[in-house]
Amino acid sequence: MSIGIGAYAKKVCEDGGTVLYSYGGYNLNEPEYRNNERISDGIILIQKECFIEPELHTKIKKMPSGRKKLITKIVPLVVDYGNFIIEGKIIVENCSNCWHKIMNELQIDMMACHLLYHIFQKYQIDGKIPEKIHYFV
Questions:
Q1: Cβ atoms within 10 A of the Cβ of 71, count?
Q2: Of 19, 28, 24, 32, the residue nearest 7 (C-alpha)
Q3: Burial 19-57 (b: 16+ CB within 10 A, else e)
Q4: Which residues contact 31 (CB under 8 A, 6 or more apart)?
Q5: Is the full-model pTM beyond 0.85?
Q6: Are 56 and 73 within 8 A, CB to CB?
Q7: How far is CA 47 from CA 9, 14, 78, 85, in A?
Q8: CB within 8 Å of 123: residues ≥ 6 apart
Q9: Measuring CA to CA, which residue among 16, 9, 76 is closest to residue 47?
């Protein structure tokens, strides 16, 4: 049974075209990857053009009082961050606590991929680039 794995990222800087995150990961199942000091020596550099706006669905809903109300729902889209990595629009430098890499020619930390997914989801839901993000299982 697994004790837990996870990763965290913090936005370091942002300019007109890019966003830079520092990130770190941990694996409580293996003593050499526990990262008790919370070292964040990995880098995720994202071009702002990768941030995709969500779909907005609107409909008119009849309320119990008989009045009609316009309802708008945000529907987050799945961002193909793997393609952006291959195109060079997202650059990942693995952290020192990387214990599992994606099996392709780029050898990217699996935890960085989870963080990318959650960064893009949070952006679509909140409408702004997140300052911090956490992922744990």
A1: 11
A2: 24
A3: bebbbbbbbeeeeebebeeeebebbbebeeebeeebeee
A4: none
A5: yes
A6: yes
A7: 16, 10, 17, 10
A8: 51, 129, 130
A9: 16
Please say whether the dihedral angle defined by the alpha carbons of residues 108, 19, 89 and 114, taken in this order, is positive or negative.
positive
- Which of 7, 80, 90 is CA-nearest to residue 41? 7
**CB-based contact 125:73 (threshold 8 Å):** no
Per-residue pLDDT tens digits for 53-84:
999 999 999 999 989 999 999 999 999 999 99
CA distance 73 to 59: 9
For the chain, the helix, strand and coil percentages under 3-state DSSP, each to the nearest 5: 20, 40, 40
**What would the pLDDT profile of 14-44 be if each residue is shown by its tens digit?**
998 999 999 999 999 888 888 888 889 999 9
> What letter represents residue 88's amino acid?
G
Asked if 3 and 29 count as a contact pair (C-beta separation under 8 A), the reply is yes
